[in-house]
Amino acid sequence: MKECIILRNDIELFAAVKVADRFMSRLVGLLRTAGLSNDQGLLLKKCNQVHTFGMKFPIDVIFLSKDGAILHIEPEMAARKVSPHIQNAFWVLEVKSGSCRRLKL
After folding, report:
1. Are 86 and 71 in contact (CB under 8 A)?
2. How far are the Cα atoms of 58, 72, 84, 93, 101 from residue 75, in angstroms, in the given order?
3. Residue 67: count of CB within 10 angstroms of its CB
4. Nearest-CA neighbor of 72 among 54, 57, 91?
5. How far apart are CA 33 and CA 9, in angstroms?
6. Exposed/middle/buried for 78, CB within 10 Å: 0-12, 13-18, 19+?
7. DSSP string computed for the chain
8. Nearest partner of 51 among 80, 19, 72, 92, judged by Cα
C-alpha cells in the first residue's frame, strides 16, 4: 500500500499515512489495526462517508475536497457508527482520536 505525508502550511501533521486507493484497501480500512500513533493515519480516495463497524478504537475523521480543503470533521467517532454523507468530499483522512483537537483543526 502507498504511503504519504500530510502537511498544513509546510508543517508535517501526519508522517505515516497509508493511502487506500484500491477496492480491497478501502474495504479493509483500519479493521486489522489495533490502534494508531499520533503520526499515523489512513487516507481513503473517492470517499464521502465512512463507518466504524468492526473497529476496536475511536478515530477522528476528516473529510477533504479533491484539492485538500477540510469540508467536515467527525471528532472521536466511536465504534459502530456511520458518518454523515459529505457532499463534494473526495478524500477521507482517518487519524488517532483527539488529533483534530490536539492540532486545532
Report:
1. yes
2. 9, 10, 12, 12, 8
3. 7
4. 91
5. 29
6. exposed
7. -EEEEEEETTEEEEEEEEEE-SHHHHHHTTTT-S---TTEEEEEES-S--B-TT-SS-EEEEEE-TT--EEEEEEEEPTT-BPPP-TT--EEEEEETTHHHHHT-
8. 80
Question: Could you identify the residue written with the cell 487506500?
Answer: 20
C-alpha cell at 2: 502507498
Strand 40-45, strand 70-77: pairing: unpaired
pLDDT, one tens digit per residue, over 52-88 is 999 999 999 999 999 999 999 999 999 999 999 999 9
The answer to whether the predicted template modeling score (pTM) of the entire model surpasses 0.70 is yes
For residue 57, how far is the Cα from the chain centroid? 13
